[in-house]
Design a protein that fits this description.
Structural class: alpha+beta
Radius of gyration: 23 Å
Strand order of the largest sheet: 1-2-4-3
Strand content: 5-15%
Order of helices and strands: EHHHEHEHHHEHHH
Distance between the termini: 26 Å
CATH topology of the largest domain: Gyrase A, domain 2
Bound molecules: flavin-adenine dinucleotide
CATH architecture of the largest domain: 2-Layer Sandwich
Number of helices: 10
Mean pLDDT: 92
Low-confidence stretches: none
Shape: elongated
Number of strands: 4
Number of domains: 2
Largest sheet: 4 strands, antiparallel
Oligomer: single chain
Length: 247
């Protein structure tokens, strides 16, 4: 999996603060410079003032201003299963690589079992992996070898048969029905800061599946560079709180 930041609102935290200050500001934030707009907020520097205001908004559950800045992420190589999970979030906008219009006829089936075209879950190869819905602890070497072999054979066969169906003239949109749910897909997604925190609340949590957690952690790392004061506060004070449904 690879996640990159494609585009993002410049100066996102200035925008959050301008939005919030508007609510209690007698003048017009559209005319005044940022220093003037932030007068009256505690702090010796403009960064400290932003930190104060952002912390205040978060503490009081005033999340509306966090809806103004947006970020767009390009995601490479997640499973269709992970895609189904993330696309449940209705306030995120998505573009998903199409299996109707892209025919994967040049994929080498020999490489499929090596993780080329299908995501390999850690439980297929790691005897000590402990997943969320796993009945026991680690498994013995013979079992993990059997799992790995069966997994590789199964996904390789699916891709070979998909390609045979294409060769028989079946359209990609129908031939894809035989492909596994672990088939990789690329996606572009856009969300605002409030939604990013909500997705992180639900999908970076311990009860989420490993793959969507990995995706969300990557998004959070990029968000921390883009919107540092907000995600510093989120990590320190909000991430592990109870009742995570608010933002
Ligand atoms: C660990 C885990 C396991 C899951 N298992 C399953 C499963 O087995 N089956 C399954 O179907 N789903 C499952 N889900 C998906 C889950 O039920 C949600 O559909 C998904 O996480 C989207 O989140 P959301 O409901 O917060 O909505 P979002 O679309 O992210 O919306 C954000 C917030 O906006 C508000 N909102 C949006 N739309 C509405 C609306 N129509 N009415 C009222 N309020 C709204 C809500 O406050 C919501 O929390 C699982 C999620 C997790 C994290």
């Amino acid at each position: 999996m690879e996640v990159t930041l494609l585009e993002a609102t410049p100066n996102p935290e200035e925008l959050i603060c301008k939005g919030a200050r508007n609510d209690y500001y007698a003048d017009f934030v559209g005319e005044d410079d940022f220093e003037t707009v932030m007068e009256g907020v505690d702090g010796d520097s403009i960064e400290e003032k932003q930190r104060t205001l952002i912390g205040h908004l978060m503490t009081h559950g005033h999340f509306g201003p966090f809806e103004h800045p947006n970020a767009t992420f390009a995601v490479k190589g997640i499973s269709r299963s992970c895609m189904a999970q993330i696309t449940r979030h209705r306030h995120v906008s998505f573009d998903v690589q199409s299996m109707r219009y892209v025919a994967f006829d040049d994929v080498d089936p020999e490489q499929v079992g090596e993780g080329e075209f299908v995501v390999t879950p850690p439980s297929a190869t790691d005897a000590d992996w402990i997943g969320r819905n796993q009945k026991g602890g680690s498994v013995d070497e013979a079992t993990i070898e059997q799992r790995e072999e069966l997994f590789r054979e199964s996904v390789t066969r699916s891709v070979e048969e998909y390609q045979e169906l294409l060769d028989l003239g079946m359209p990609p949109e129908d031939a894809r029905f035989v492909l596994p749910i672990g088939t990789k897909v690329n996606m572009v997604m856009t969300m605002n800061v409030r939604m990013l925190m909500h997705v992180a609340d639900m999908r970076a949590a311990a009860d989420a599946q490993w793959e969507i957690r990995e995706l969300t952690e990557s998004v959070l790392d990029l968000a921390a560079d883009w919107c540092p004061l907000t995600f510093e506060y989120y990590e320190a004070k909000m991430r592990n709180r109870k009742n995570r449904l608010a933002p």
